[in-house]
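hey so i finaly got around to running the thing on TEP1-F from Tenebrio molitor. pasting the sequence first so u can double check i didnt mess up the copy paste, my clipboard has been acting weird all day
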Amino acid sequence: MCRFYKVVGPRVVRPNSEYHVAVSIQQTSEPTTVTATLQGISLNGSIYSSEDRVEVQPYTSRICRLEVGDVEYGDYKLIISGKGGVDFFNDYPVEFLDKSYSVFIQTDRAVYKPGSKILFRAVVLNSQLKPAAEVRNEFLEINVADGQGNRVKEWKRIQALRGVFTGEIKLSESPVLGNWNISVTIHGQTFSKAVEVAEYILPKFIVNIQAPRHMTFKENILVANIQTQ
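ok and heres what it spat out for the 3d tokens, dont ask me to read them lol
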């Protein structure tokens, strides 16, 4: 009888995340002890290794969870081995991806007039797109540049409680017009959003409604003439 196993895991590894490996065992009557090891060496020579061991029953699946710390660029691989019901040993290269956080920048409007106030917030999510609770250990740097690229305001070493930072910029009566840029930097990654500052006049609409001034209870239909311009 042919015994076999199946291993499923991401092709990339990210810093400050959890690396999951799913292992299933087939065509055996005995449990298998599976060891998953993520190891590698960074470009500066630092050696990294993280290991997890689980026991997989026949015809079932288990997940190995490997904690990934603040690793840097380098060569990494996943080593997977099993003993017991199915004996095996294999290693697979994984790619390093330096994106441990995602930042979404939201503004209350897309276009702002001179003298108005830009309200914005930055929402920091982890690699699973969940609110990053661990972001309290990371500092944010937020910069705002005008339409000519001049830095007009900045926040340094900001601690975003619960992964959210809220800020505002008061525009002068004669600001630089054009696309203003809001950028957020965390853990060496920069995310940005552009908003427009322009002089504009809100369009005015005139609505004229012509209808009878009086109606009786016997009349079931109201006829009106509506004109807009």
